[in-house]
What does this fold into?
Amino acid sequence: DVKVTQSSRYLVKRTGEKVFLECVQDMDHENMFWYRQDPGLGLRLIYFSYDVKMKEKGDIPEGYSVSREKKERFSLILESASTNQTSMYLCATAPGGARYEQYFGPGTRLTVT
Amino acid sequence: GENVEQHPSTLSVQEGDSAVIKCTYSDSASNYFPWYKQELGKRPQLIIDIRSNVGEKKDQRIAVTLNKTAKHFSLHITETQPEDSAVYFCAASFLSGGYNKLIFGAGTRLAVHP
It folds into this structure.
């Protein structure tokens, strides 16, 4: 079974704070993704990574950055949190190659006040 | 641009009825189409997927059909049960910078009433 964990289930931060969200997987998957989920908008891709130290922008990268120093760990960073970044953040992994199916973490509900 | 449209946004059925959710995609090069189920407070879980070389796939009470010409695919759930109540997301693969990513639909909230 694929296990994808996220560092926090709930997080409350103040406007302007630097926020780190961590995702760890134990299945040696090549690919990792960060999404945000908002009602009526589905899952929108923020950033993804296909290898260590490699990152690609998704559809809504503004205000976010990422880090992948080790294969199993993919971090999402909000340099200066804003209220419009209040959302559910979901990490996902995929095996890579011709296998595109993604496996999701439990999510982090972030509230920025 | 890359887009996946999903309909309806909400669906209410009686237990035992069938439910159908439809999605359309914009890129004719898309070749992988998964469906995810997200129960309240839980993570999205892959329930079925189909690749572009197949027109239909079935797994017990759920099935997915794909029409590549029309660029749409559908999820069919037969003999619905209350535990089928959830939000369902479709997705399509898109090539971006040489890498495949998924674009998700906005979701369908399915309610199955006993």
Summary: The CA atoms of residues 16 and 80 of chain A lie 4 Å apart. Chain A has a mean pLDDT of 94.
